[in-house]
Amino acid sequence: MLKAKLTNKIEAGCDEAGRGCLAGPVFAAAVILPKNYKNKNLNDSKKINKKQRDTLRKVIEEEALYWAVAEVSPQEIDEINILNASFLAMHRAIDKLKQKPELLLIDGNRFKKYKSIPHECIIKGDGKFMSIAAASILAKTHRDEFMKKAAITYSQYFWEKNKGYPTLAHKMAIQDHGICPLHRKTFNYNLQLKLDL
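Request: output the structure for the sequence above.
Response:
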């Protein structure tokens, strides 16, 4: 059972999606839920299917007090590395919130401090706290939507199915066609393409 608030402060749950991909931006979301918010279907985006995620996205966007989604491009990822890009995506999402949070709940064990707002890193937080789970769902669904649209232009990589992750079909397509402008050049493709082949 996911928990609601940790404190009486205005909390924003934050999470990212697309960190382990070979292509596409990394997305992040920040979500402020109402106090004592309850939703028995809310869970870590990786533990529910696409239909459930899409349904929950609409619910979260309607019922959250405030929410925002932001992205960091493949070019920026190449410049600052994927870890820093994940932090930057979360910072950009927090920037877009219309309410300034008093505490940030971050999924994972590392985070780069955002302005003067205190934060708590929570390992597997998307499976423990509702606001982080909500952020996980928004980040994942918005990123999947982006990759599905990108797949129309770059159909050879099957992004409508793999969303830019290093699946066998994606790796084979890179071997056959090379990389495109949405691929992250800082990945070690020689190593990546050897995996599972």
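The chain is about 40% helix and 15% strand.
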